Amino acid sequence: MPAAADGAHHEFTVEEAGAPRLDLLVAHRLSMSRSQAATLVANGHVLVNGRRERASFRAPRGACVTVQVPPAPGREVVPEQLPVAVVFEDEHLIVVDKAAGMVVHPAPGNWTGTLVNALKGRGQQLAEGDAAERAGLVHRLDKDTSGLMVVAKTDGALRVLSKAIAERRIVRRYAALCWGHLAEDALTVDRPIGRDPNDRVRMAVLEGGRAARTDFMRLARFASADLLRCHLHSGRTHQIRVHLASIGHPVVGDDAYGGGGARKVVGLPPKRHFLHAAWLVFNHPVSGERLDFRSPLPEALRESLLTVAELPALFATPNPLEYFDFYRADR
Predict the structure, then answer these.
(1) What is d(CA 279, CA 310) in angstroms, rounded to the nearest whole number?
(2) Under a CB-based contact definition with an 8 Å cutoff, are residues 117 and 78 in contact?
(3) Residue 1 pLDDT more than 50?
(4) Best CATH choice for the domain 9-68 from the list 3.40.50.1820, 1.10.3300.10, 3.10.290.10, 3.40.50.920
(5) What is the pLDDT of residues 124-174, one digit of tens each?
(6) What is the enclosing helix (H) or strand (E) of 309?
(7) Angle 213-207-42 (CA atoms, 0-180°, nearest 5)?
(8) If both were cysteines, with which of 13, 28, 136, 199 could 126 make a disulfide (CB 3.0 to 4.6 Å apart)?
(9) DSSP for 23-92?
(10) How far is CA 106 from CA 77, 124, 139, 200, in A?
(11) Residues 241, 273 contacting (CB under 8 angstroms)
């Protein structure tokens, strides 16, 4: 079952005997935290066979559970004067090169300082979409992942680009450094991803999760790590990080998925993982023109790659990804 949306109605049948307590059951089925589920139960938004029950209640097999997620209270997105790198802009869309450390859109715990706040601070017109805090967003990047994103300025552009994402017609390729060495130079991980039932902040490969596929190509093999080009065929939360961790090769510097140790070995600063959205290709939603955007490695990742590669020729290369043929279309 997909993650619960604000204002949505959900209904499911308890299929197993000995189901967990009600708050845990709802949290698992709706991909939310236990505290969120417990609040829904306490406020009467969860019914078992039409009746309110306590959070500790264990629903019998065959019981019908209904959940009404109330709409989130409206919150104005405040325009802010924040630096944001714009690489392309017209009246329909804007392409930005997001810095690591910037959250993409306002949410609990990050109502300010986000990319959406920054774009609105430029006086930016953004597509309205489903919610003001996610205005214009076609896709997203994790907070500590840097790189290219396309944002729609009109609702028409948003509809076309969102459909293109769903139909896998927008090419998104990431540069990643992973610990250890892949078994093959080219590898596809096709494993479903869902919310980790033991840690709601994390994602995990889970049976019954949402379909997720990532193609990995090794561009270089170093003593302790591989440089990879990652091609997304779907856009699940933390997808590249989860898929690499699931095969025993977490992203270098990724504290959440087991790759955060030995930073000094690769010269990576704290609170930074080696993942960068370096190549974005799509058709313009109005003109149909093929647009091709390429982002060099940020300085912190460039310095890290120089450290791990130990190749003097790289020091004279502004974007080491070109040295390793990252942008070759036939690879």
Answers:
(1) 25
(2) yes
(3) no
(4) 3.10.290.10
(5) 889 987 667 778 999 999 999 999 999 999 999 999 999 999 899 999 999
(6) helix 299-309
(7) 115
(8) 136
(9) HHHHHHHHT--HHHHHHHHHTT-EEETTEE--TT--PPTT-EEEEE-PPPPP-PPPP-----EEEEE-SS
(10) 7, 16, 14, 19
(11) yes
Q: Which residue in 142, 144, 226, 254 is the catalytic one?
A: 142
Max mean pLDDT among 16-25, 145-154, 188-197 falls in 145-154
Give the tens place of pLDDT for each residue, 277-290: 999 999 999 999 99
Q: For 293, which DSSP code?
A: E
pLDDT band at 2 (very low <50, low <70, confident <90, very high): very low
Q: Which fold has domain 85-166?
A: Pseudouridine synthase (3.30.2350)
What CATH architecture does domain 171-323 belong to? 2-Layer Sandwich (3.30)
The whole-number pLDDT of residue 264 equals 83
Whether the Cβ atoms of residue 173 and residue 247 lie closer than 8 Å to each other: no
142 is catalytic: yes
Residue 98 burial (10 A CB sphere; 0-12, 13-18, 19+) = buried
Distance between CA atoms of residues 26 and 242, nearest Å: 23
Is the dihedral angle over the CA atoms 298, 118, 273, 213 positive or is it negative? negative
Written as six digits, the tokens of 311 are 């190749």
